[in-house]
Every structure is written in C-alpha cells, then in structure tokens.
Amino acid sequence: MLLGGPGALIFKKLTSRIPIVTITADPVRLGIAESLARPGGNFTGASIDAGPSIHGKRIALLREIFPSISKLGLLALHIQYSGLVKGSPIPAAAQEAGLPIAVSLLDVGAQENDWRAAVESLSGEGANAVMVVDSPETFQNSPLIAKLLTDARLPAIFAFTESVEAGGLMAYSFDLVELYKRAANNIDAIFRGAKAGDIPFYQVTKFDLSINLKTARQLGLSVPPALAASADKVIE
User: Fold this and answer.
1) Domains in the chain, start-ordered, CATH in brackets?
2) Helix, strand, or coil here: 152?
3) pLDDT class for 141, splitting at 50, 70, 90?
4) What's the whole-model pTM score?
5) For residues 47 and 69, is the Cβ–Cβ distance under 8 A?
C-alpha cells in the first residue's frame, strides 16, 4: 500500500502488473486510473482530492484566522510539482482568492536542514502564510514542519489532523484512519482474488477542521469564536 501521489507515480513507472492500493490525489489526473468507478490497470484505493473547491476552502479558513494574508506559500515535493501543484487547481484557487503564491519544493527524503531552507525560502519570497501540500513526507515530518513555520511566524494550514496535534496551526483534513481501514479492505479483496482495476476508488467527501489554540497564541492570532465553535477538534 502507498500513501500519497508521489509514490504512486514512481510505482506506475515500475510495474503494470503488481496490484497497488494507494491513498492519493486525483488518480485520474495522475494517470493511474481510467475512472474512479472502474480504475482499470493495477491501482485502486482512495482519492483525497475533493476537487478545486477544497483548496479554496482551505485558503478561506486560513484567512479567517489570519485576515492579513497577502501572499500564500506552498510547501510541497519536487515530484509533486508537475502533477499536484503546477498541474493542480491550487494556484487557481489562490488566484481566485486574490493571492499571489510562492512555491518551495523538496526532494523525497529531505532532512531537517532542507525543510528549514524551504521555509526560509518562502519567507524570503514574501509569503506570510503557508499551505502545506499533503504527502507522506509532510505527514512524517509534521512536528518539524509545524515548529519551523511557527518559529518563522508563518500561519499555516495542513492536510492532516495529526499535523495540528503535532503543533501545526490548523488543518482541514480527511480521516486518515478511516482511509487506512478502507485500504485494508481493498487489500483483503485483492488477496481473495479481486483485480485492483475492478475495485472502485473511494472518493473522500468528508473533511474535518482542527485548530491548535496554543499555536495560535504563539503566533499572536485570535481565533474567531464562531470558527472555533465549528471546529471538529480544538487543541487547547
């Protein structure tokens, strides 16, 4: 099983026979499925891309906490840039919100100094708030990324609730545990003889808002009471 589009793109080049279950962005746009209902090929799993509106929603939520946002930084992987960032609706969502963007890219396996340099690059380009693009790397490095962004005084929105638990300001996220359960069911079906290409991709439709009030205080931000009340998870 793979978490994230970058791994799926790598394995797409390596094999067309081994069944692969993945949690990824739009699998059709990535070229690993013909459609969500009938993927074909050797991939199945879950799509965490709910369409262009999800990026606009994240920007709007970030703006509610930080109305002074003037330039949005995107923190992502190099391997994502051609497919998930440059070829995705994120820049369009930022443009619709009236925000220029700065993009800072890292390689798979990036170390602490690489993440530090990436955050410094965003600050240097004038970004005063950040969207952390979902990937296995940003998930695994959540505590480090959250600390670097907070130290740099950059309000940020993440794609994982776990990132907020690790100190990130806020996230508008899918339920990763639920997706793992669905992936496990897919793997079980494959072991029982089903073909990956015949198992529909699950499309995420429910997203949860989580906010870390401690981080907000560290950043000198006041969370609107209505926003805090609407959050699915609030960390004091």
Assistant:
1) 2-48+175-203 (3.40.50.2300), 52-173+207-235 (3.40.50.2300)
2) coil
3) very high
4) 0.85
5) no
